[in-house]
Amino acid sequence: xxxxxxxxxxxxxxxxxxxxxxxxVGTPFYLxxxxxxxxHFQAFDSAFTVDHITCFATKSCSNIGIMxxxxxxxxxxxxxxxxELFRALKAGMDPQKIVYSGVGKTRDExxxxxxxxILMFNVESQQELLALQDVAAELGLxxxxxxxxxxxxxxxxxxYISTGLAKNKFGIPIETALDVYRQADGxxxxxxxxxxCHIGSQLTDVSPFVESLQKVKGFVTALRDTGLDIKYIDLGxxxxxxxxxxxxxxxxxxxxxxEEELGxxxxxxxxxxxRVIVGNAGILVTKVLYTKQGGKKFTxxxxxxxxxxxxxxxxxxHKILPVVDYGQGVETGDVVGPICETGDFLAKEQxxxxxxxxxxxxxxxxxxxxxxxxxxxNSRPRVAEVLVDGDKVHIIRKRETLEMLIAGEVIPE
Length: 413
Ligand SMILES: Cc1ncc(COP(=O)(O)O)c(C=O)c1O
Known about the structure:
The protein is α/β, with parallel strands linked by helices and 413 residues long. The protein has twelve helices and 21 strands. It is globular and about 70 Å long. The structure holds pyridoxal-5'-phosphate.
């Protein structure tokens, strides 16, 4: 459930009429509903009855105005870079609720994580382990480590967002991971505290999660048999959402299935949800510039693939709705942006509103991997982000200016 609804044929975010926001901030802009963000976080977090930490996946939506909401609700953060760590801390996340994943952490990033006192590093290779040992020794600190194991489970999702197959770059094969734990146990500045895995994103079926938990659980038992104390099981994120007609399990169904499989293993469960919390709590609002009939009907809008990359990158579907429904009806066509790439589209051969210049369109389900994947391609300033709270409108990120496009650039003498 979300808080984007029509009132008097005009799309509202909570109590605010979207055309009013467009008049205030210009277009395009990302728009988030605070009530929806809170509702989704709580629905997920409260679905678990075992000892757990919900570490929001920063990469999905990293605005500190949004992350701070989750911090206040007791959430933590899953991060994959020093930049995300900086954001999580600025948003008020407790370092002891921050877990750090990613295959390519630099020494500077490892140092930053150690100095910040994060809960654990989800280490993804033997070489990363040795780098972490080295950096921790230099600092005179002990690094809390969980290895990210790759369980070779098919998440049955888009190939680009599958991460738990043997052919993917992520984690350490679960069959050989025992050796790495043994090695880590012998290192002076490493303390192994957990096991982590993340098999992919936008999963619409609970069974791959259960299958990977079965493997992780067996592995934790094997580690304990060797005398290692494993306190945390981190199952990553990945629960899918409805973009079109998908029917992913509700968080309660997902949580129940995991808890049943987990049994009384006595570990704190860590979860790293992103999309399921923010995906349907945000939209992208864009304005129609022109329409034209080529080989097919094109609606040209002021947002492009640099603002929302998912359709171009993954062929992802986003429903497009009219912000004001004046009975214009729908037609089959493409909604395209101003970028000089044929791959620049927000909708391809799908049902879209019949539109004319200056109409506003809402690109739905854009809260996750929307703004965070945006870029300045074609030298387009990145758009504003707006958070609505009841009848209040907060600009949580200003639209970039032209000056910001060249900040840091230098013409050599
Ligand atoms: C390590 C890790 N954790 C969590 C997530 C969040 O996934 P989702 O947004 O599908 O919940 C991702 C996404 O790629 C990830 O790589």
